[in-house]
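lol so apparently i was supposed to do this last week
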Amino acid sequence: MKTVIITGASRGIGAQTARLFAKNGYATIINYNKSEKDAFALKDELLAQGCCVDLFRADVSVYSECKAMADYVVKKYKRIDVLVNNAGISQIKPLFDVSQDDFDLVMSTNFKSVFNMCKVVSDYMVSQKSGKIINLSSVWGEVGASCESVYCASKAAVVGFTKALAKELGPSNINVNCVAPGFIQTDMNGCLSKDVVDEIIDETPLARVGNPQDVANAILFLADEKSGFITGQVLATSGGWQM
Ligand code: NAP
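anyway here it is w/ NAP bound
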């Protein structure tokens, strides 16, 4: 049985990705940080369907917690086949209002977490001589968004890191790719008004917002052998918004 670690899988895109992998026969490690109730509910939901799932609480911005999670998975499941770096937070503020702490929080949650997890997991993948790493960027990482400068920078950093790592780990038979969602309906966008959402739908060629399943499908594809010759790429799941 293949094993996948999905960071930030208590809610939103991560939770839907956990459902999809678990139903496709993966031993699925659901990482969460603060939303313990949601994570336990998801685990119970999937166990009731006969899936193999496990929970691990870790703040992925902290290296030692990432290391503990990877060690736990390898000890129990003997391998890590797929890593999905999904955990993230948004921040909408003009630069004038962004404090040093705001900057550190977004960069450590959205980017240092990817560095931490790749560092601890790639060790195992290199010795296995196989693995798939899928990092969540954003369309904003490529085109930028007003009042989201640090968020956009964190997601652009994920793209650069992914491409470099794809070159470094390719010879060890490890694929490293990004998924870059557009507007996906999750808690992260709960603060946006109906007018803003309607405007985004107007600007989207496929004329709707995305849902977590749209992104989960792309992540599963990048974890599959069918995408075995794809590495270092950014796959937008945006309905064509912000091409
Ligand atoms: P969400 O619904 O707000 O969920 C965020 C998830 O990240 C939660 O499960 C949360 O876990 C987890 N998380 C946050 N900080 C963490 C930490 N330090 N350690 C471990 N887990 C942490 O967000 P989403 O919309 O599903 O977004 C998922 C990813 O897609 C993010 O990287 C986001 O930037 C990216 N994305 C989203 C959109 C969109 O439109 N929604 C667009 C582009 C990119 P806890 O609650 O347990 O702490």
